[in-house]
């Protein structure tokens, strides 16, 4: 924290007064020249969103980040704080961060006129120069711009015509700062109109006061395209005043999606040491989100947030942790069976179309997991033929025959030793894995054994039944006999 100083000492220090655009631009240029990362933790945007952001900043534009839910729009806005100077000098006691070089409030002008070079100067850290407001329908002009404060008028014994009776809203208080307005279309049209002058001329109007307060603010807006039709819209004159509109997007590859999930998921150091997550399990988790974004049951306009896989990863870890507690084991590995624990993370993060609602959220979640399983399975193993002829042997014939005489019962609460000894007892299953995935780690090969069984049940080559803690795999033919 920097100590207070005087206006004279500030000038003698060689400090140069800058607008917020000049400040952000100078720091951006310095980072680029130093080959430093400008926006930390934004995976998958290096060749799309980030270059556009840099250009918008260099152009001195206000920015509208347009994209579906869970595309890091707010993270982008918050990360811009790192482009501010560490400290900013203000006239001490100013409500709106007056610069001593260019005071705009009556309080600051009067104080400098009275004290001159002895005007006290305080410092504001960049962490306090970020203002964020969620645009909800109940937001009014007084919240954003300001209003007359009758209590202040009475306390100071001033008439309502005196500028000192004004109570400044969030935007004037964000002078020389970054102001983020989230979900802009949710803001009522008449409130959006109140932003016109601020964006274009930089000044504000409160009630009947003819104020000329050239506010210096970097605005960042966020919006979801769905909002344009379902809840509201950005009025055209306001869109016209926003310099750059930048579209965000979901990660385009599983690898990028994994980086985001691993960065954001809240997993303790202790859990990381006790719980092993196979690479294939991590990939499968991301495949679920990719399947959801392409699903006919999920509303594509609403999007599928990156928070789905983050929440699902935390649930996956929780399932493994519960097993550790119940079995009193020291370590465990995430299994395909554990993926049933992520269903609550899926159902709460997707918007279903009519057909999906008819099927039910839980059923759709299971379909998405099955689709992800098949995508991963087909990238590792031969396709499962739809029809089998008795005289033609397929890669899965021996395994299916094994189940004609045996069944397999897998429990969530089995220790790793119990669980994998059951899988390893199926010789045709081990052969399949070793022949097709010889280079995978032991954990991934074990995961593959579950993957194969799951894929065979999806293709109706095996039958699968379940209860609260157990999955039983049987011959599809035997089950059909019992049903008949």
Q: What would your notes on this structure say?
A:
With 484 residues, this protein is an alpha/beta fold. It has 3 domains: 5-247, P-loop containing nucleotide triphosphate hydrolases (Rossmann fold, 3-Layer(aba) Sandwich), CATH 3.40.50; 251-379, Helicase, Ruva Protein, domain 3, CATH 1.10.8; 386-484. It has 24 helices and 15 strands. It has a 5-stranded parallel beta sheet with strand order 5-8-9-2-10, covered by helices on one side. Strands 1-4-3 form a 3-stranded antiparallel beta sheet. β14 (462-466) and β15 form a beta hairpin. α13 packs across α16, α15 (279-294) packs across α16 (307-327) and α15 crosses α19 (361-378). It is elongated and about 100 Å long. The N and C termini lie far apart (79 Å).
Question: Characteristics of this structure?
Answer:
Rossmann fold; 45% helix; three-stranded antiparallel beta sheet; five-stranded parallel beta sheet; 15 strands; elongated; 484 residues; alpha/beta; Helicase, Ruva Protein, domain 3; 3 domains
